[in-house]
């Protein structure tokens, strides 16, 4: 669907030509993703190795939103996770996120490393310019007990009442699991890069 873009660029390519403010937003976004990812992985690994995968479900259900809120508040912008195959319908991608995830999946199908996939764009959402950023989440070993192709019966039993519409199964190591998504208002000191309309 054609859209008027204020600025768009695919971050797998060189970042030449980005305005200084936008480049700072990208750097800030990467740091926020690193903070969120490290905190969540630490909680998941601790739960898995001390109490097993059923306990890890509790981490994703209860602790992950809290970690996202903490990082969001510390950074002053919204960070979340989404996927083309979500477990919790509340995490379903919006139209912009879905479009980016589909581009990520196309790149993954060609052999790209999901952990290296990034995309950012400044879009006009009616109320002014918004900076949006996504970074791919690779399926790691820690993910497979609850999201893999062979899920233990007790894990399935724990997931069913919590996520009756669960789609987030059948992943293999190295698959694109989803993406971190960041949304933040653009402040006046951010200069727009030249317009583009391709990913």
Write the layout of secondary structure elements.
Blueprint: E1 7-10, H1 20-51, H2 53-75, E2 78-82, H3 95-109, E3 118-124, E4 129-138, H4 141-147, H5 153-162, E5 176-185
Antiparallel strand pairs: 1-3, 2-5, 3-4, 4-5
Helix pairs in contact: 1-2
Protein architecture, described:
The protein is α+β, with helices and mostly antiparallel strands and 199 residues long. It has five helices and five strands, in the order βααβαββααβ. The protein has helices at 20-51, 53-75, 95-109, 141-147, 153-162; strands at 7-10, 78-82, 118-124, 129-138, 176-185. β3 and β4 (129-138) form a beta hairpin. The longest helix is centred in the first third of the chain and has 32 residues, at 20-51. The chain is globular, with a radius of gyration of 17 Å. The model is unreliable at 1-18 and 190-199 (pLDDT under 50).
Structural class: alpha+beta
Q: Helix share of residues?
A: 40-55%
Number of helices: 5
Which radius of gyration do the C-alpha atoms yield?
17 Å
Main sheet attributes: strand count, strand direction, barrel closure: 5 strands, antiparallel
Approximate shape: globular
Features:
disordered N terminus; 199 residues; disordered C terminus; alpha+beta; five-stranded antiparallel β-sheet; 5 helices
In short:
The chain is an alpha+beta fold. It has 5 helices and 5 strands, in the order βααβαββααβ.
């Amino acid at each position: 669907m054609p859209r008027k873009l204020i600025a768009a660029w695919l971050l797998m390519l060189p970042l030449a030509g980005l305005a200084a403010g936008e480049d700072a937003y990208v750097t800030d976004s990467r740091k926020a993703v690193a903070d969120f990812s490290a905190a969540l992985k630490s909680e998941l690994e601790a739960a898995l190795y001390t109490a097993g995968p059923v306990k890890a479900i509790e981490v994703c259900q209860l602790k992950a939103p809290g970690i996202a809120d903490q990082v969001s508040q510390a950074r002053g912008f919204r960070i979340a996770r989404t996927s083309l195959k979500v477990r919790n319908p509340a995490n379903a991608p919006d139209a912009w996120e879905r479009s980016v995830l589909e581009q990520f999946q196309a790149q993954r199908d060609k052999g790209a490393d999901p952990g290296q996939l990034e995309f950012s764009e400044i879009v006009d959402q009616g109320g002014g310019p918004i900076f949006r950023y996504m970074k791919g989440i690779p399926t790691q070993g820690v993910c497979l007990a609850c999201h893999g192709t062979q899920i233990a019966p007790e894990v399935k039993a724990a997931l069913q009442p919590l996520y009756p519409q669960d789609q987030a199964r059948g992943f293999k190591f190295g698959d694109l699991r989803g993406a971190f998504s960041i949304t933040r208002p653009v402040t006046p000191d951010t200069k727009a890069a030249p317009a583009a309309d391709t990913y």
